[in-house]
Design goal:
By secondary structure, this protein is α+β, with helices and mostly antiparallel strands. It has four domains: about 40 residues; about 50 residues; about 170 residues, Band 7 domain (Tetrahydropterin Synthase, Chain A, 2-Layer Sandwich), CATH 3.30.479; about 80 residues, no CATH class. It has 14 helices and ten strands. The strands form three sheets. Strands 2, 3, 4 and 6 form a four-stranded antiparallel beta sheet that branches. Strands 7, 8, 9 and 10 form a four-stranded antiparallel beta sheet that branches. α6 packs across α8 and α12 runs antiparallel to α13. The radius of gyration is 55 Å and the shape is elongated.
Length: about 450
């Protein structure tokens, strides 16, 4: 047994009050208090750590809005496969940052972007008043300040192979582009969006970041499209030109795989250069009057033809001048004739039938008189003469017969005409009826 063990054995039998000094007692109490404090601190630290862990995990709950879809980046790479790469509206849990990061992209929101690149500069007071500031005709157009589009001349033959001698016109236009994001993954991969700073709204950051790109692409689409139209079409066409610009713009966006869909394109305003606007308006008015006169003439011609001969008129007219068409085909067209011509044709046929029937009746009458004429020609001629006189005098209102005799040379015959009043009234009534009909 060692000396140390012997001391321990001896101290075991010594009472505590006798073996400890006052200083030892104080150190023992301090150690005990420190031990208790450390225990409490460790317990509090454990609680705090648990709370922090719970808070850290709770920060992984993210909410995606009803008009949004979200991508989850795990250490910078898109998480998930197929449809699972996109998170729909609702609450979702992800590993908190810096493990995972959620990117919310508004796919249902449409954005309107006004394009004034092809418009002349305006003062704020002109914009507010809505009035156009006049300029002098001798004021030149400044290409560095005045925006414009180039259009073809209205006399340009688009079928011509050589267009080097073509004339072009200028026109000022205002546009509005409406777009939305329809493919969040392509948009995130291929379109640059600046980092979101404190207090920034991601939707506003997106629109501000892509606005220069969209403006540049849209200007190219407008230039490519407008050069295929005349200035008159640029002023009047509010549907076809915006539709072509939309198609051009969508092709450009699809080519770079932007994930952006063009909802609509509107040509909100178009006008010729202010320096020549009065002359252009006069030319436009003359063109409108010309077109109106042509339209009225065509309408009148169609109406007249329809009233005269019906829908078959033009075809029948062409058939009459076509020497290769046989009579049977022409006859079929004549049978389809309508309108006034059909009435005239019916009257002509009726008249022809009547003439033929009268001629046939006269021929039958003459043939019936031929035997008697051969026996007594003078009597037959006298009968024919009397029948003719009777037919002539039958419709006469008044008749005066003067019978002359032989040997009355130099004799003056005077007839006192005392008209029957009833005949006079009858003639007057017939004349009034004729005037009313006229």
């Amino acid at each position: 047994m060692t000396e140390h063990d012997h001391d321990k054995k001896d101290n075991k039998h010594v009472p505590y009050s006798e073996s400890q000094s006052p200083l030892g007692q104080e150190l023992d109490a301090a150690g005990k208090s420190l031990s208790e404090a450390l225990g409490i601190s460790f317990a509090i630290l454990k609680v705090i750590m648990v709370i922090l862990i719970i808070g850290f995990l709770a920060s992984g709950f993210k909410t995606v809005g009803s008009n949004e879809q979200a991508l989850v980046l795990r250490f910078g790479a898109i998480r998930g496969v197929g449809e699972n790469r996109l998170l729909g509206p609702g609450a979702h849990w992800i590993f908190p940052y810096p493990i995972d990061e959620i990117i919310k992209i508004p796919v249902e929101s449409t954005v309107n972007l006004s394009i004034d690149s092809f418009w002349y500069p305006e003062r704020p007071e002109d914009v507010l008043s809505g009035r156009e500031r006049p300029v002098r005709p001798d004021t030149p157009l400044d290409p560095l300040k005045d925006g414009y589009c180039i259009t073809r001349d209205e006399k340009q033959d688009e079928t011509a192979v050589d267009a080097t001698g073509s004339d072009y016109n200028l026109v000022h236009t205002k546009w509005q582009l409406t777009y939305q994001i329809n493919d969040p993954e392509r948009f995130f991969r291929n379109v640059y969006v600046r980092s979101v700073g404190p207090g920034d709204v991601y939707f506003d950051v997106i629109t501000q970041s892509i606005e220069p790109v969209l403006t540049d692409l849209f200007e190219g689409a407008v230039v490519t499209t407008m050069v295929n139209y005349t200035i008159d079409e640029a002023i009047s066409s509010q549907d076809r030109i915006p539709g072509d610009v939309k198609n051009q713009m969508q092709k450009k966006l699809d080519r770079i795989q932007s994930g952006i869909n063009v909802v609509s394109v509107q040509l909100t305003q178009s006008t010729p250069p202010r320096q020549v606007k009065p002359a252009f308006e006069a030319s436009t008015l003359a063109s409108q009057n010309r077109d109106k006169a042509i339209t009225e003439a065509r309408t009148y011609a169609e109406t007249t033809l329809n009233e005269a001969a019906g829908p078959i008129a033009e075809e029948l007219f062409a058939a009459l001048h076509d020497e290769t068409m046989d009579e049977q085909q022409r006859e079929l067209l004549w049978e389809q004739l309508a309108g006034t011509a059909q009435e005239k044709l019916g009257d002509a046929r009726e008249y022809a039938t009547k003439v033929v029937e009268n001629a046939r009746a006269n021929a039958d009458y003459i043939e019936s008189l031929l035997p008697e004429y051969r026996e007594r020609p003078e009597l037959v001629l006298q009968r024919i003469y009397l029948d003719a006189i009777e037919n002539i005098l039958k419709n006469a209102e008044e008749k005066f017969v003067v019978q002359t005799t032989e040997g009355t040379k130099g004799t003056e015959i005077r007839v006192l005409l005392n008209r029957d009043p009833s005949l006079k009234r009858q003639r007057t009534g017939s004349e009034e009826t004729t005037q009313e009909n006229q």
